[in-house]
Amino acid sequence: MKKKVLGFLMVLTLCLGLTGCGSTGSSDSASSAVSGKVSLNGSTSMEKFVNALSEGIKEEYPNLQLEAQFTGSGAGLEALASGTTDIGDSSRALTDEEKANGLEENVVAIDGIAMITNKSNKVTNLTQDQLSKIYTGQITNWKELGGQDEAIVVIGREAGSGTRGAFEELLKIEDQCKYAQELNETGAVLAKVAKTSGAIGYVSLDVLDDTVTAMKLDGVKPSEKTVKDGSYTLQRPFVMATKGKISKQSKQVKAVFDFVKSDAGKKIIKKVGLVTPNK
């Protein structure tokens, strides 16, 4: 009898052990079960973040692949509306018209729009009013701001760019800017300002490097800290828009957003120089 009881207990223990092992692996198997591809299209300013996200998500979802194109915010949202992409990346808030067409604004990070100038420029601090006047052509020489006698070369992004849209909207200078050159990528603006004496431009905070000077705005330097506390006022949302609410999307798209909201996703946001939204 004792042997039978002992045998029963051993079998019971073994079963419980196997059940425990099965439950431990259930999360992993659930992640592995999410397989396939998710297409993203849109903002060039979000390229660094999206590429980091594409790599990082493999740790949690090894069978899920993100396929990204970087054609600009406007083009990405148009692709989303037409059903040719799963997620539309936008470095600006969605318009009322876009929302009325069924696009859902999902803010995943906050980005500072950094003002940059050529390293030879002695002017490194501007007020918002001065910045507005530079971009609308009312101030055309750095000597008017205490700098050298040199023409200001105003560099910006192309029409349809989320960075340009957010920049002009924040300064309330939509359709008033006098650009010397309009470029179609964040990296191109950085490179142009770096090699052009007298140039000024705007780029996403996360691409800043030592080839240019990051300008202060009203005495505040752009950084993760100043964007987070709101003291640096040129900031905009990074949006991963969907056609309809996230809850209505495929399990693959839902997995992308689950990862972005996870601790691992937040680490990626921080690593690329962005700020997690407060909500």
Can you give a write-up of this model?
Helix content is 41%, strand content 21%. It has 10 helices and 12 strands. Strand 1 (36-42), helix 2 and strand 2 form a beta-alpha-beta unit. It is elongated, with a radius of gyration of 24 Å.
What would you say about this model in short?
It contains ten helices and twelve strands. By secondary structure, it is an alpha/beta fold. The protein starts with a helix and ends in an 8-residue tail after the last helix.
Question: What is this structure's SSE topology?
Answer:
Layout: H1 2-33, E1 36-42, H2 47-60, E2 64-69, H3 73-82, E3 87-90, H4 96-100, E4 103-104, E5 107-117, E6 125-126, H5 128-135, E7 153-157, H6 162-171, E8 181-183, H7 186-195, E9 199-204, E10 213-214, E11 216-217, H8 224-228, E12 235-243, H9 251-261, H10 263-271
Helix pairs in contact: 2-10
Please name the defining characteristics of this protein.
alpha/beta, two-stranded parallel ribbon, elongated
Taking the alpha carbons of the first and last residues, their distance comes to 62 Å
Biggest sheet overview: 10 strands, mixed
Low-confidence stretches: 5-26
Would you tell me the overall average pLDDT?
A: 90
Give me the Rg, rounded.
24 Å
Tally of helical segments: 10
Strand residue content: 15-25%
- Helix/strand structural class: alpha/beta
Give the quaternary arrangement of the chains.
single chain
| Beta strand count | 12
In which range does the helix fraction lie? Answer: 40-55%
Secondary-structure element sequence? HEHEHEHEEEHEHEHEEEHEHH
Overall body shape: elongated
